[in-house]
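Go through the following before class.
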Amino acid sequence: MNATLQGNLAGISALLMWSAMIGLIRSITDAFGVAAGTALIYSAGALALFLKNGIPRVRGMPRTYVFGVGALFLCYEMIFSRAIALAESPRQTLEVGMLNYLWPCLTVIFSIWIRKTRLRRLVWPGTALAAAGLCWCVAANNGLDLDGFLHNLRATPLPYLLGITAAVTWALYNNLSALCSKGENAVAVFFAAIAVILWAVFFIQGNVLHVPGWKALGQLALAGVIVGFSYSLWETGIHNGNFLFLAVCSYFTPAASMLFTSFWLNVLPPAGFWGGVGLVIAGSLLCWLAGIEKRGSPRKALRR
């Protein structure tokens, strides 16, 4: 199996794990509390990666990757978690999440300038269709309420600003990590840094950690493995796999997440969900066609 195929499989595995772990993470935060649960998940993720791969040799890694790109990783996690925390209602939480799910489209667009990816003009209608499909999928339970969205945006703009900032940050991270890492994987170090920051904030605020029971600890161990391995696999995917292919596949993350959650909770997805999936598929196909090299042109669009 060649390195590109292994990278693609790693990236797809990460996307599937991200889609399936929402319910588990919710169980952890319900059991330990949001602040402690989030810190514990990152701690468990870092520990799982350290046990599997050992402690990474940071000194041998490019400084631009460890400090510059690593700062983007930390910023994304902090910004998005803050955006969700500031949402004042379940509806706002959904809308902020919808803005964050624009990162796959932004990843493809940013690759044109950052990675010099050569794409046909089909990428623009493809991206628009995929973005519309993502919004449709995420809003399927409550319908597309543009007036309500604009009202919430005017009333409390900060969580929405943070949500779109998070999407831009993660799209930049994906492109710059693939460009600057030189094959290194420092996700375990990034996780450990986030855990240290979260625990510092947790104890500075005077919080006390409560352990609810063995069941919650077992769920925490499982969440640590899934979260840690998924981010590490994604890092491997964008470094070694077909970057454009994985970026297009990531369009399906929110739809797959909702589908997994529906099966987990034994609830049928709403009828409107499938219309959104159709738009995502159409947009993804157009973006994929935009990346196929023109006859007689240099093979640059599909390079890693």
